[in-house]
Write a structure and sequence with these properties.
This protein is of the alpha/beta class and about 450 residues long. The longest helix has 22 residues. The protein contains 17 helices and 11 strands. Helices cover about 40% and strands about 15% of the residues. The protein folds into 3 domains: about 130 residues, no CATH class; about 150 residues, 3-Layer(aba) Sandwich (Rossmann fold), CATH 3.40.50; about 120 residues, no CATH class. The site of zinc ion (ZN) has 8 residues, from α11.
Length: about 450
């Protein structure tokens, strides 16, 4: 076990000021190709516990600049935390290492399998994704001794369509027992607004309170993982979300043997190379991020979004806890989903075509939705996105009646213009509800 003092872990928040700036000033390609570039040095992790919390933290140094990256769970889950390996910290540090062209020197063992896959495949793939030369080398300090992993099967859970579909697909009886979901994980790693650490943490805790209730009804424990990872990385969440969430899974590899990461895109959208959303890489990189103790797997990529929504509608609890909204501040008190942001209106329209929307009156602002529903149908009928195409296919399958006015407008508009309704036209009309109601009413003919 690590013996470094726990003092390092205390007051960790204060260590982060300025680090994201260091990352955002990442050097241009080849500028660090010289032999004198400083390494990222990762110290042994320190496991500490107290006041009902357990924390695993490691110092990460670049020259004189020292940061502490920490993860924290309820003390009940202390035995899940793998302090015998630096795997979680290595995966978290890949982003600054590749962006800055630095090597990573470890002062504690890591998984041999992860080391092998990082060195051979993952670093070159991520360097291509970040548009940097693949200069980073990991300099290990021995490898984690062979140990059996746990039997836990964990999945992130946010209450969205992907999460509920993942739950549906991995409920007992639908998969071999070894793949049946045993735990939900709910992380504070950047998905809660990326405003300030305190504001993000407050939203994380608010969402956790609601999700814990849902998880209880679904009969699964939910492990809430707080961390300083977002402050540590300081980049847009979508750019690095897979690595952030996998780092948490690796943290718990003593008890969790499989990590199912719900995919945001269908498998057909898989591609390597520069992008703004890491989801496109997942079917390739997730298996490379596993260790001898934990497998990382994508989940749900075989379904279209419409198919996922159809599955979610079979989960009773989704009628009370579905949370897809990107503008929850626009929703009335006590309702989680505004009904009109691009995610809400897409989901609500799909549920309406499936004949299930009325069952979701407790979680969607259906009055707001009804003010804009025909406007969104113009995008669904005339748009060019994969989601518009999926909804068109569903409309045909279900024989759903689309007003003639919607069909005419969609036929007249170029596909690129029709595609703008959920992202631009409907948000612009939010402050002019009477006008929106009038236009939406005209489109009903
Ligand atoms: Zn919304």
């Amino acid at each position: 076990m690590p013996t470094a003092v726990n003092v390092r872990a205390r007051n960790a928040n204060r260590f982060f000021e300025g680090f994201s700036t260091a990352i955002s000033q990442s050097v241009p390609a080849n500028a660090n190709a010289g032999a004198d570039r400083e390494e990222i040095v990762i110290s042994p992790p320190v496991l500490s516990a107290g006041n009902g919390r357990a924390r695993l933290a490691a110092e990460i140094r670049v020259g004189a600049d020292v940061k502490t990256l920490w993860f924290e769970v309820e003390e009940d889950y202390k035995d899940y935390l793998a302090a015998d390996t630096l795997d979680a910290f290595v995966v978290a540090s890949l982003v600054p290492a590749i962006l800055q062209g630095r090597n990573m020197r470890l002062e504690w063992p890591m998984s041999a399998r992860l080391f092998y896959n990082l060195s051979r495949s993952l670093i070159p793939i991520l360097a291509g994704y970040f548009e940097r030369p693949p200069l980073t080398r990991v300099i290990p300090h021995g490898f984690t001794p062979a140990a059996s992993g746990g039997a836990g099967v964990a999945a992130g859970f946010s209450g969205g369509i992907d999460s509920f579909c993942n739950y549906y697909d991995h409920a007992q009886g639908r998969v071999p027992d070894a793949f049946s979901l045993t735990h939900f994980i709910f992380n504070n790693v950047g998905a809660h607004g990326q405003m300030t650490p305190n504001a993000d943490r407050a939203l994380f805790l608010r969402r956790y309170t609601r999700l814990r209730e849902c998880a209880k009804k679904l009969g699964k424990p939910v492990i809430a993982v707080d961390s300083s990872l977002d402050e540590f990385l300081g980049k847009k969440f979508e750019l690095t979300h897979t690595l952030r969430n996998v780092a948490v899974a690796l943290l718990m590899q003593k008890r969790i043997g499989k990590f199912l990461y719900a995919s945001g895109y269908p498998l057909s959208e898989t591609k390597l190379g520069p992008d703004s959303n890491m989801s496109h890489l997942e079917p390739v990189i997730l298996p490379l991020l596993g260790t001898e103790r934990i497998e990382c797997m994508g989940s749900g990529g075989q379904h279209s979004r419409v198919e996922k929504t159809r599955r979610v509608a079979e989960v009773e609890e989704s009628r009370h806890y579905l949370d897809v909204c990107v503008s929850p501040h626009n929703a009335p008190d006590g309702i989680a989903n505004c009904g009109v942001c691009w995610k809400c209106i897409r989901t609500a329209t799909t549920l309406k075509i499936l004949g299930r929307l009325e069952e979701y009156g407790k979680v969607f602002d259906l009055r707001s939705f009804a003010t804009f529903d025909n406007l969104y149908l113009v995008e669904a009928i005339g748009g060019k996105s994969i989601y518009a195409k999926e909804i068109r296919r569903l409309i045909a399958e279900e024989g759903y009646r689309v007003p003639l006015a919607v069909r005419c407008i969609a036929a007249l508009l170029p596909a690129a213009a029709a595609q703008q309704f959920s992202m631009r036209i409907i948000p612009a009309l939010l402050r002019h509800r009477a006008l929106a109601r009038f236009i939406n009413g005209c489109l009903a003919w």
